[in-house]
Amino acid sequence: MKIIVAGKGGVGKTTISGTIARSLARSGHSVLALDADNNPMLGISLGVGPERTDELGTLRQALESGEVAHQPSTAGAIETFGTDAPDGVRLVVLSRIDRADPG
User: Fold this and answer.
1) Per-residue DSSP letter, 69
2) Which stretches does DSSP call E strand in the chain?
3) What confidence tens digit (pLDDT) does each residue in 30-68 have?
4) Helices 74-81 and 50-65 meet at what angle, rounded to 10?
5) What does the alpha-carbon distance between residue 76 and residue 5 come to, in Å, rounded to a whole number?
6) What is the CA radius of gyration of the chain?
7) Residues 18-43, buried b or exposed e (16+ Cβ, 10 A)?
8) What's phi and psi for 84, nearest 5 deg?
9) For residue 81, what are the β-bridge partners?
10) Whole-number Cα distances in Å, 94 to 23, 70, 82
11) pLDDT tens, 16-32?
12) Four-residue CA torsion sign, 40, 41, 46, 50
């Protein structure tokens, strides 16, 4: 099963995503939560905390700068760029913005 939560800013996407992910994991489902927001906060909603969430975003930047090796498999990417969250959820942070001039 794949669930995507999308919408305009400030409507509660992160809160709903975290609640759904933890609920499904508590029910015995294998859950991989992907945070693709420009300001990744799903880790905080899942209980990972701000420091670890920020570290995951930094790992992604290290990949782009060549400091961390590219992972050729999905499993490798999930292992390298993810962390275990409470209730059995695996979190992967996919993006973040450090500069206001991405173009």
Assistant:
1) P
2) 31-35, 82-84, 89-93
3) 999 999 887 889 999 999 999 998 888 777 777 778 888
4) 130
5) 25
6) 14
7) beebbebbeeeeebebbbebeebbbb
8) -85, 130
9) none
10) 22, 13, 9
11) 999 999 999 999 999 99
12) positive
Q: Retrieve residue 78's tokens.
A: 């999930």
Q: Which positions ≥6 away from 60 have C-beta within 8 Å? A: 81, 93, 94, 95, 96
Which pair of tokens denotes residue 54?
A: 């920020």
Which residues have CB under 8 Å from 6's CB, separation 6+?
Answer: 13
List Cβ neighbours of 37 (8 Å cut-off, separation of 6 or more).
13, 14, 95
pTM: predicted TM-score of the whole model, two decimal places: 0.81
Per domain, the residue ranges of the chain are 13-93
Whether the predicted pLDDT of 98 surpasses 70? no
